[in-house]
């Protein structure tokens, strides 16, 4: 490509609504252009990256026996009503009516359509397994679109759907996709991590997220540096503390703690470690009986003062599905005290105490005394209060926790979710009556898996991981161009012009994706553009250098340029690219 | 590709709603699957054709200095309101509201968005010319979607937009696109014709349509076999007849023609040639004055009995913009007679007579006598009635008419419109204030052109041109596969299996897009599938043949197979493909 025949549009400053680095840099590098809230035109420079991302995905999907098709954007409401998602998806689903008043969804994903395709096409187990995918525009009407391509409304996604005759087959298809994703993200040249995710009803290891590692990531990833264990924060298990619970050493003492409702301030007031305190969280679960009467059940959740509640885990405790925080009025009514002074000892009414595993292992702890202005110190299970009714994993893990696989201690890093593989089971095939005839000629529901990659989101995530104060640093496999040639004074020097053209042809001949900057800019402006755009390899062709028999090579992460002889440059570049 | 890893789904019969051959064959060959009215899933076999069509378009667009980007599907209403198309497009424009009640269009084309991109990006004439294109999903809410991909609602289109500093530049960009289109359709391997089209306000040769030639085409194409002249029926000019008008030879005679209101029946009754009759068409033009009073003007259009009215041409006659047919009541009121007996001679009120060029050249003609049940014969201009107030080209040309370039006689064939190039001028740039600074630093509106190709429509058009009673006959460049290998009894014969694998590898190595049918079907069913799907080259590998030292090659249009030695087959196939 010649820059003069391409469209390059860089900005000194990012628009004020670009809050994060990747959004700012994509706007400044002219990769995207905002059309509306969460809606972007992919400019020529950005589209090249998208196409490279798509090509890698397509190649690995095909190698993994994925079969590409293309499902429509505009999908009849009737299909979405069959699975109930027409209602369940709420405002996020973009709905549209045609001239005859018929309703349609603009696809956010395509489970319904692919299941509809398959239920009419698949008759026998002999046709299975199958894995269909497409790379298609999606729309989700996010309440608050932001961060450029990271949380847009219109975006591109690769979504794949596997169909199998039984659970084992589905899990095998899932494994094939997991491995394909691993190859895909490896080829992107990004640091990534696959983590086990919670997948609700199915449980187990039925779902994994693929995250690009970045300090700015929205999600906390939990992993064990000395084993394969990895999960997202929702799914990472906090094991019970090792060993026996320490014996009680202190006497139970009611201590005045006026205006001290948080564990942090209680610990400071008493001069103790925060890890010696217990915080009490009051939850309420409402159930509606057959007579439509609402019954409320109240739960007291106990968490160590320095730990965080994990709402997903709480929801899995028997009786706690659909829980909510109790209101202040409810707390006053049930416990006779105000929030901040609740505790398991001497409650006014019988209450179900649900203790986190760590709390159940504590002795001589500090907790609210159910009396405004007072806490207990030296509290102990069994002695001062009955053992908790329920002990469960209720908290987020923290760095240093034991890994659930017993192979070391957990570490935590931040990630950006860019892929998700999911064992769907028969949820869609049952609601849509997608069956096949098994070996005995009996109809059985198809076992499904679904597998997504946020194509356009990859761009944002790659940048969040790879940038400096000059701009983007693309991995070579998804860079808009692999190499940029920067001739100095091409219009003045015949030598420079000739050498540039020779090199351009040689690199193209070697299959390198090269752009020559023939715009005639001053060196400073030219270099700044390409550093902002993030092309990984730059070659400067100058008359002085040529007369000394060298070109100047500089990798995007290099502090300084390296002189390379013109004859050796193609091999040199190939060597750099192979690294 | 191996058929066992692909998805092949053929049908014996087409669904009853498939009215035309291409729709029937695409459904039967498993290329598309209906999701809703005018909405199709592109199945794996169909998607391969679409991708090949797109690749050819992209390659030629890039060679013609087109720069690819990707504009969103969901486009803010405000942009469409700027050009007035939000209203003008009516029900065909699919509209959607987001969760905040903001309105959007699902793009049918992208003039507004590209003009918005360019008005913020282009500051100076130095940045011009530019030509942006994208290949993107479109939606048009057709009143009556039908014919499969030929008149669907969701479809794929390549749309390009050129921007120039002046008319000459725009016309040069237009020429570049015209030539690129010619190369694109040539590479598709289709018989096609570019015809001049009417483009309303701009006139001249500012618009061409590209048609795939097919008997079943919706459009009539006019061309001169002995010159370059070609136009669509709307735009093809009918020249005035050559020579002087013949002198009057008959006397004007009022002749009884009871219940004979059509020229055909008048000619039969009188025993004369239809070409001797003149039909009269009453038109009314309503104009609303400043006082909101509606004034009606009435026109009498004269056409030779065997000619057809061309409404586009009529609309261009001074005073006839916005014309409509007069109602029966208006005819009775103005002319004092009933339709079928109108004529230019002896009208009750003064009326503007607009004669087609051919009619103005007639003598001794037959026309209505403005008296129910009577026609005049032997009518002559000048003698019996004043020369017509207006003489204009009002009719469709017919085969044999003189070519407007004076180089021969016109012929007519049918075509399917698949591309359109259009000189837009400044219509969009003026309404959207898309200006640039010219050499004198003065703002000037951008000169635009737009250029579309109906990507998915190409599939339908290619089939309408290329099919037989067995199925589709794809041109090799856009066939889903170039070559199919049909092994006979691969599971029984080690020799067949070995030779098939060898040949498969050899063809792949030679860059041939080959599929091996390893499904284990009987020969009849296997051959029928590939003839239906329309793969252009087939090689049968059978044990008997191999023992005789040959494979059986058959081109999709060949009546019989040809024996080819295994060693020679790759070169043979390459030879066939080069034809």
Automatic annotation (TrEMBL), chains A, B:
Q: What class of enzyme is it?
A: ligase
What are the entry keywords?
A: Aminoacyl-tRNA synthetase, ATP-binding, Cytoplasm, Ligase, Nucleotide-binding, Protein biosynthesis
Q: Which Gene3D superfamilies does the UniProt record give?
A: Anticodon-binding domain (3.40.50.800), Bira Bifunctional Protein, Domain 2 (3.30.930.10), YbaK/aminoacyl-tRNA synthetase-associated domain (3.90.960.10)
Q: Write one Pfam family the protein is assigned to.
A: tRNA-synt_2b
Enumerate the CDD domains for this protein.
ProRS-INS (cd04334), ProRS_anticodon_short (cd00861), ProRS_core_prok (cd00779)
* Compartment(s) where it occurs, according to its Swiss-Prot or TrEMBL record: Cytoplasm
A GO CC term assigned to this protein in UniProt: cytosol
Cross-referenced InterPro entries: aa-tRNA-synt_IIb (IPR002314), aa-tRNA-synth_II (IPR006195), aa-tRNA-synth_II/BPL/LPL (IPR045864), Anticodon-bd (IPR004154), Anticodon-bd_dom_sf (IPR036621), Pro-tRNA-ligase_IIa (IPR002316), Pro-tRNA-synth_IIa_bac-type (IPR004500), Pro-tRNA-Synthase_IIa_type1 (IPR023717)
- The Aminoacyl-transfer RNA synthetases class-II family profile domain sits at 33-475
User: What EC designation does it have?
Assistant: 6.1.1.15
Q: What GO terms in the biological process aspect are recorded for it?
A: prolyl-tRNA aminoacylation
Catalytic activity entry: tRNA(Pro) + L-proline + ATP = L-prolyl-tRNA(Pro) + AMP + diphosphate
Transmembrane ranges, per UniProt, are none
One of the entry's Gene Ontology molecular-function terms is: aminoacyl-tRNA deacylase activity
According to the record's subunit comment, the protein's assembly and interactions are: Homodimer.
What NCBIfam families does this protein map onto?
PRK09194.1 (NF006625), proS_fam_II (TIGR00409)
Family to which this protein belongs? Belongs to the class-II aminoacyl-tRNA synthetase family. ProS type 1 subfamily.
Q: What does this protein do?
A: Catalyzes the attachment of proline to tRNA(Pro) in a two-step reaction: proline is first activated by ATP to form Pro-AMP and then transferred to the acceptor end of tRNA(Pro). As ProRS can inadvertently accommodate and process non-cognate amino acids such as alanine and cysteine, to avoid such errors it has two additional distinct editing activities against alanine. One activity is designated as 'pretransfer' editing and involves the tRNA(Pro)-independent hydrolysis of activated Ala-AMP.
Instruction: Show the domain comment.
Output: Consists of three domains: the N-terminal catalytic domain, the editing domain and the C-terminal anticodon-binding domain.
Protein name listed in UniProt: Proline--tRNA ligase
Q: Which organism is it from?
A: Janthinobacterium violaceinigrum
Taxonomic lineage per UniProt?
A: Bacteria, Pseudomonadati, Pseudomonadota, Betaproteobacteria, Burkholderiales
């Amino acid at each position: 490509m010649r820059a003069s025949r391409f469209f390059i549009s860089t900005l000194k400053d990012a628009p004020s609504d670009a809050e994060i680095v990747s959004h700012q840099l994509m706007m400044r590098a002219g990769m995207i252009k905002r059309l509306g809230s969460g809606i972007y035109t992919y400019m020529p420079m950005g589209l090249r990256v998208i196409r490279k991302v798509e090509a890698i995905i397509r190649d690995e999907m095909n190698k993994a026996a994925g079969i590409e098709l293309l499902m429509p954007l505009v999908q009849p409401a009737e299909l979405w009503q069959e699975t109930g998602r027409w209602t369940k998806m709420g405002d996020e689903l973009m709905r549209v009516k045609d001239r005859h008043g018929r309703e349609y969804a603009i696809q956010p994903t395509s489970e319904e359509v692919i299941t509809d395709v398959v239920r009419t096409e698949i008759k026998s187990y002999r046709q299975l397994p199958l894995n269909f995918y497409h790379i298609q525009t999606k729309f989700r009407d996010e309440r608050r679109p932001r961060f450029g391509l990271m949380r847009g409304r219109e975006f591109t996604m690769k979504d794949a759907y596997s169909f199998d005759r039984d659970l084992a087959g589905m899990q095998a298809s899932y494994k094939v996709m997991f491995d394909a994703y691993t190859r895909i993200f490896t080829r992107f040249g990004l640091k990534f991590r696959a983590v086990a995710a919670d997948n609700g009803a199915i449980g187990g290891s039925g779902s994994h997220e693929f995250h690009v590692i970045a300090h700015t990531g929205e999600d906390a990833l939990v992993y064990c540096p000395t084993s394969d264990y990895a999960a997202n924060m929702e799914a990472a298990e906090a094991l019970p503390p090792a060993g026996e619970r320490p014996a009680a050493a202190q006497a139970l003492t009611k201590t005045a703690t006026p205006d001290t409702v948080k564990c942090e301030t209680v610990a400071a007031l008493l001069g103790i470690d925060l890890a010696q305190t217990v915080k009490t969280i009051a939850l309420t679960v409402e159930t509606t009986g057959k007579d439509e009467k609402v019954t409320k059940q109240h739960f007291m959740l106990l968490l160590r003062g320095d730990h965080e509640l994990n709402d997903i885990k709480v929801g899995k405790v028997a009786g706690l599905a659909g829980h909510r925080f109790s209101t202040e009025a409810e707390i006053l009514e049930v416990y006779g005290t105000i929030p901040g002074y609740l505790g398991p000892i001497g409650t006014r009414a019988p209450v179900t105490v649900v203790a986190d595993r760590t709390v159940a292992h504590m002795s001589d702890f500090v907790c609210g005394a159910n009396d405004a202005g007072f806490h207990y110190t030296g509290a102990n299970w069994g002695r001062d209060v009955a053992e908790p009714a329920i002990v469960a994993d209720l908290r987020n893990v923290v760095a240093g926790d034991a890994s659930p696989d017993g192979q070391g201690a957990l570490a935590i890093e931040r990630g950006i979710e860019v892929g998700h593989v999911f064992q769907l089971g028969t949820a869609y095939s049952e609601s849509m009556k997608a069956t096949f005839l098994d070996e005995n000629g009996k109809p059985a529901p198809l076992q499904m898996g679904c597998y997504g990659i946020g194509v356009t989101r990859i761009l944002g995530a790659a940048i969040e991981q790879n940038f400096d104060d000059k701009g983007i640093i693309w991995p070579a496999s998804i860079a808009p161009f692999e190499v940029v040639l920067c001739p100095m004074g091409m219009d003045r020097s015949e030598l420079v012009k000739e050498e540039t053209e020779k090199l351009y042809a040689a690199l193209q001949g070697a299959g390198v994706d090269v752009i020559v900057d023939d715009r005639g800019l001053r060196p400073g402006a030219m270099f700044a553009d390409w550093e902002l755009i993030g092309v990984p390899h730059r070659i400067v062709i100058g008359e002085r250098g040529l007369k000394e028999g060298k070109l100047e090579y500089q990798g995007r992460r290099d502090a300084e340029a390296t002189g390379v002889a013109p004859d050796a440059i193609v091999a040199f570049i190939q060597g750099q690219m192979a690294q």
